[in-house]
Amino acid sequence: MRFVRFSVKTSGVSLPFPTGVHANHSSNTARESTSDKRVKVTFKLPHRVKFGQEVVLVGDDKALGSWSVSKGKKLEWQEGDMWQATVDLPRDTSIQYKYAVSNIEDTTWMQGNNFVVDVPSFGSVLAEDVWEVENECKRTADGDATTTIAAASVLATTTSEAADGTTDYHKMTVKEIKEILRQRGLPVSGKKADLIARLA
Fold first, then answer.
1. Is the alpha carbon torsion for 142, 148, 149, 154 positive or negative?
2. What is the pLDDT of residues 18-59, one digit of tens each?
3. How many CB atoms lie within 10 A of CB 105?
4. pLDDT at 44
5. Is the CB of residue 64 less than 8 Å from the CB of residue 82?
6. What would the mean pLDDT of 129-137 be, rounded to a whole number?
7. Other C-beta atoms lying within 10 Å of the C-beta of residue 132
8. Is 21 helix (H, G, I), strand (E, B) or coil?
9. HSE-up of residue 108 (Cα within 13 Å, Cβ side)
10. Residues 6+ apart with CB under 8 A from 86
11. How far apart are CA 138 and CA 136, in angstroms?
12. Dihedral sign, CA of 121, 126, 130, 136?
């Protein structure tokens, strides 16, 4: 720690005061603030690859490389050809992503639609995926019962109607709105207001 001597007199003696304390405190506060705005999401994918290949998680957040394989999150291999990684993602958002198998020479992308994970406002999420099989992907939030992200059977029981017979999306949950967007082939990323605007 660097000391700077100020001309503060106590019994004729100048006392040194440390500098840099406030800067460190501000830096720590900024890091804590950024961390508070993100939720830990653990991704698990069973997939067998050839020797020298690795599985990379790529998606529409900076933590996932913003769709750049070279900047994506590399998963760690575990016993039984299980790949896993934990990423801090922004809360209250829907993140689209895909897996890719990469080595020094080339990259093979997972085929089919992008996978989606809905990040809650707090807690943590476990995303258990199946390569190229969207309707078998599962999500578990904070140890709750696992739910399957599949066909939108939600609509038949959760759609709210206004007095004039139109759908009142403001009374629906974010998850329910996203199911409708998926059925219509529309993007599901963003906050609730953005999602509702796409359905207007």
1. negative
2. 444 344 444 444 444 555 689 999 999 999 999 999 999 999
3. 7
4. 96
5. no
6. 86
7. 15
8. helix
9. 10
10. 40, 41, 42, 43
11. 6
12. negative
CA distances from 130 to 113, 115, 126, 127 (A): 12, 10, 13, 10
Question: Which amino acid, residue 5?
Answer: R
Tally Cβ neighbours within 10 Å of residue 133: 11
Cα–Cα dist 133/115, whole Å = 9
Q: How many CA atoms lie within 13 A of 2 on its CB side?
A: 6
- Residues 150 and 43: their CA atoms lie apart, in Å, by 17
Instruction: Write phi, then psi, for 52 (nearest 5 degrees).
Output: 95, -10
Average pLDDT, the chain: 75
Whether the model clears a pTM of 0.70, i.e. scores above it, the answer is: no
Phi and psi at residue 178, to the nearest 5° = -65, -35
- Bridge-partner residues for 56, per DSSP? 74, 100
Check residue 179 and give its pLDDT: 75
For residues 160 and 178, the answer to whether their CB atoms sit within 8 Å is no
Which is nearest to 95 in space by CA: 199, 178, 184? 178
